[in-house]
Amino acid sequence: MMKNFSSSPLHSNNQTPNHIRERNIRKYGLLSAIPLRLSLRGYGFCMATLFLFCFGSLFYQLNGGPPKILLDIRQYLGESTYLDDHGPPAPRVLPFPSQVVYNRVGKCGSRTVVILLRLLAEKHQFNLVSSDIHNKTRLTKHEQVDLMKNISNIPQPFLYTRHVHFLNFTRFRIEEPVYINIIRDPINRFLSNYFFRRFGDWRGEQNHLIRTPGMKDDERYLDINVCILENYPECSNPRVFYIIPYFCGQHPQCRYVKSFYAFACQKHFAILDIGQKNADISHSLPRKTALFSFSFIPFISHREPGVWALERAKQNVLENYLLVGILEELEDVLLLLERLLPHYFTGVLNIYKSPDYRKMGNMTGTVRKHTPTLEALQVLYHRMRYEYEFYNFIRDQFHLMKKKIGLKSGSHPSVYSPAFLRELALRTPEPLDEDEDLDTDLEDANSWLVHP
């Protein structure tokens, strides 16, 4: 007879209570282990997600984000931000930033602003610290930390100026100051620097010999068209990739990356500059490798600096700069600074427009400056196309700020496309341009400054 293993009432009634209890324990223990196992996995997933979120938030805080004082000023101006809709109401009084950094770009009117600041610091009683270092814009990590700590230790309120690429204070857990800056048309800036290094300005025919004593005559009198068209180092990248790094920062990708190629041959390899790509490479290889076959490999592919550095520079401007003006509209820049930073710049436009100050400024115009040929300008514009994209971005942001403040734009018709090459006339006014001889200029200015 076949045995009945089904759970019939007869069969169930024959089971003892202990057997029933053990079976129920196994049954419900198995079922209860499943949700427990799932809950442990879910708990681990949630903890991992939370850790990544916290780490990402900390990373963002350490690497950027607008300082609170800058957000407060933007709220005061009525700029549309997340805080306008979800945060506290905009302040009724313009916030006062007690820490301002002007990481001035060379040949963009910095001497004009620095001399004005020296006069204003004496008038308004704020601390002005102007660095005497003009040729070290890129710093090591330790140099960055030391400089930022020194800046933070200046008695407040202060305004610090130096030729230096953007410093990310929050990355090193140091309070971020408010940044300001001024740039100019990239080709005009380049031409001004080119001729100033060679021939100086109207203050003296021999002052250029003091600044560049080691420059030979063949270099000093080198025709700028030859320099551009024959790709001399001074007229090509990385030398003309100049403005963007001031706003991009200290990251290696903010600088021009020169391309080169490596020719690998078993354990030996030779590196050639991109200019030698079509050269006879057999002369560049070690003698021991001549018998072996080698292959051409791009050791570091040609990566023209542009997109990454440009976008980082734009982001830093939007997040950390109160104002970046353009030299072509310098009076409007000074007026905006007077509106946005009244504790520092009140009265700056009156000083700048005074006849004595204008007379002093006219003595610093670069001499012997002339416009290159159209062909040379086209080549130079192509090399500086990322500089012009950044310049156009700054110009648009500057005009938006003027509109927000209520100033009518006094800008000239757009000259920032390749069409400008046919009409380039070096119209940019020549204020004080470099940072040498500041003490002498200040003595002249103090002779007519009226103290309260």
In CATH's first tier, which class of the largest domain applies?
Alpha Beta
Structural class: alpha/beta
Second rung of CATH, namely the architecture of the largest domain: 3-Layer(aba) Sandwich
How widely separated are the two ends?
123 Å
User: What is the domain total for the residues?
Assistant: 3
Q: Mind summarizing the main beta sheet? A: 5 strands, parallel
Q: Helix content range of the residues, please?
A: 40-55%
- What is the CATH H-level superfamily of the largest domain? P-loop containing nucleotide triphosphate hydrolases
Radius of gyration, taken over Cα atoms and rounded to an integer in Å: 33 Å
The amount of beta strand, in percent, is 5-15%
Instruction: Count the DSSP helices.
Output: 19
Net shape:
globular
Low-pLDDT residue spans = 1-12, 57-62, 80-86, 202-206, 259-303, 433-437, 448-452
- SSE string: HHHHEHEHEEHHHHHEEEHEHHHHHHH
Cross-sheet strand order for the largest sheet: 2-3-1-4-8
What fold name goes in the CATH topology slot of the largest domain? Rossmann fold
Number of strands: 8
Q: What is the residue-mean pLDDT, rounded to a whole number? A: 74
Organism: Acanthochromis polyacanthus
Keywords: Glycoprotein, Golgi apparatus, Membrane, Signal-anchor, Transferase, Transmembrane, Transmembrane helix
InterPro entries: Heparan_SO4_2-O-STrfase, P-loop_NTPase, Sulfotransferase
Transmembrane segments: 42-62
